[in-house]
Design a protein that fits this description.
This protein is of the alpha+beta class. Among the domains are: about 170 residues, no CATH class; about 160 residues, no CATH class. Helix content is about 40%, strand content about 15%. It has a 6-stranded antiparallel β-sheet, with helices on both faces. A two-stranded antiparallel sheet has the order 2-4. A two-stranded antiparallel sheet has the order 5-6. Strand 5 and strand 6 form a beta hairpin. Helix 5 crosses helix 16, helix 13 runs antiparallel to helix 15 and helix 16 packs antiparallel against helix 17.
Length: about 475
């Protein structure tokens, strides 16, 4: 179907044109009774989309994938991936569709992508549907991440379908419309590499790499070895990204290779959550029984995923297999130092340390601070804002706690900048009890808690009157928290 003729929405099909072996043309399932639950009007304006039109019947059709522009061809993307360490050669968009790419004023592309739009050939026995709670969760957390300046896919809208979906109980169905620089993943390269190993002679792996370079890391095209430069660029992007996660206490929860983007954006907010009391062993995902993706393991897992990425690129790095391995190994060795540099700079900023403090002093101070946070079972997010109040001379309750009477004078002697601390330490994050409150209310038809939460999260660093409950840790009766993938 086509959009209304007086509304211009142009979707390019560059991914499908460049990589037809990885794109299966498909249609979204109809929605019996669409209802708009959330619309990101700010993002819509950035994309050149009219918010009023998106609220219309045709606009909702676009957000559901049932009404698409003339010339657009929605596709399900193919990819592979390691899931909890086990390789699956054929994953792909089992319940998702790439509607196409929106072209920005700078000729940059942004994917318009759906989740929950129905079964595709990659569904692997699933129903291809999604429900209101997990789709609103992704909306909440991804937009919070964006507000904190962390690279992420964005959420444009959540539309209830009017269809009940069977999970443990019957739940209201929904589709999420999200936007990303692309949905290219490490798993995309794993799929293309398998194609090459199976005897494909059409250069799919090279075309995918060229597509990724042009779209995300164009500087690599001018390097002596463009594909090595691509790998190095992705390593750098992921080192910065994971450091940013760690700095705000974010636990992704499902760091499979199909959930690591080539762009360096956070993707897939299924079982994610934010750490409450500081503990590197924090795990929320109900299926992460061994703690593979625990908070403190995230840098190690990222490096493991990048090693898997390197394996796919070896045929492009050098004709000599041993030399290709050497090039990839040397590049991967840079991940640790780059992550450490990003983390160190970030945590120094969180403590308000002035420029010029030597590394040994800063490292010892940071290490001791994290130990004290864990030993005292302090809330990770609010502790940093509390320290800013200490820097201003306020009595905040930290003095007298085990270890702090020794640590605080060492830190205060360095003249920490409280205002600088407040610029990088959020007051408002998607606290787990507030997210659950908003999702439960939305499932019952009440969107007010969701709206109020999004209002707080839109300005995460600005403390505002009347929002105390959004800055407070979970109540004692909230209990142990578990998240689920929502599939």
């Amino acid at each position: 179907m086509s959009v209304a003729p007086d509304t211009t929405v142009i979707l390019d099909n560059r991914f499908a044109r460049d990589l037809p072996e990885m794109a299966v043309a498909w249609q979204a399932e109809p929605a019996p009774a669409p209802q708009l639950l959330a619309l990101n009007e700010t993002l819509a304006a950035e994309l050149g989309l009219d918010a009023a039109w998106l609220r219309s019947a045709d606009g909702l059709g676009l957000l559901l994938g049932t009404v698409v522009p003339d010339g657009a061809t929605p596709v399900a993307q193919a990819y592979a991936g390691h899931q909890f360490g086990g390789f699956v050669p054929r994953l792909g968009d089992g319940r998702a569709l790439l509607l196409g790419e929106l072209v920005g004023p700078d000729d940059g592309l942004r994917d318009l992508h759906l989740k929950g739009s129905g079964r595709t050939p990659f569904a692997r026995g699933g129903d291809g549907l999604a429900v209101v709670g997990p789709m609103l969760r992704e909306y909440i957390v991804s937009e919070s991440m964006h507000a904190m300046g962390i690279p992420t896919t964005r959420s444009l809208a959540v539309v209830a379908t009017g269809r009940e979906v069977q999970r443990e109980t019957l739940l209201p169905g929904a589709v999420l419309a999200r936007v990303a620089s692309s949905h290219l993943r490490v798993g995309s390269f794993q799929y293309a590499n398998l194609h090459a190993q199976a005897g494909g002679e059409d250069g799919l792996l090279r075309r995918l790499a060229d597509h990724a370079i042009a779209r995300h890391h164009p500087g690599a095209a001018d390097a002596d070895n463009p594909y090595l430069a691509l790998y190095q660029a992705v390593i750098s992007a992921q080192a910065r990204l994971v450091a940013q996660w760690m700095l705000v206490g974010f636990v992704h929860g499902v760091m499979n290779t199909d959930n690591m983007t080539i762009s360096g954006e956070t993707i897939d907010y299924g079982p994610c959550a934010f750490m409450e009391n500081f503990d590197p062993a924090t795990v929320f995902s109900s299926i992460d029984h061994g703690g593979r993706y625990a908070y403190g393991n995230q840098p190690t897992v990222a490096a493991w995923n990048l090693a898997r990425f390197a394996e796919t690129l070896l045929p492009l790095l050098d004709d000599d297999g041993e030399q290709a391995v050497e090039l990839a190994t040397q590049a991967l060795h840079d991940f640790g130092p780059q992550f450490d540099a990003a983390w160190t700079a970030g945590v120094r900023a969180k403590l308000g340390l002035p420029v010029g403090i030597d590394d040994a002093t800063a490292t010892a101070l940071v290490g001791d601070a994290l130990t004290l946070l864990q030993q005292n079972q302090l809330d990770y997010t609010s502790a940093w804002r509390t320290l800013a109040r200490v820097a201003r001379g306020d009595d905040d309750g930290l003095r007298g706690r085990p270890g702090f009477d020794d640590w605080l004078p060492r830190w205060l002697a360095l003249n920490p900048d409280a205002d600088a601390m407040d610029r990088v330490n959020p007051v408002y994050i998607p606290r787990n009890h507030l997210v659950e409150e908003a999702l439960q209310a939305a499932a019952d038809g009440d969107l007010d808690p969701f709206t109020h939460l999004m209002r707080a999260l839109a300005k995460p660093f600005d403390e505002r009157p009347g929002l105390d409950r959004y800055a407070a840790p979970a109540p004692d009766d909230f209990g142990s928290y578990r998240t689920f993938c929502g599939t």
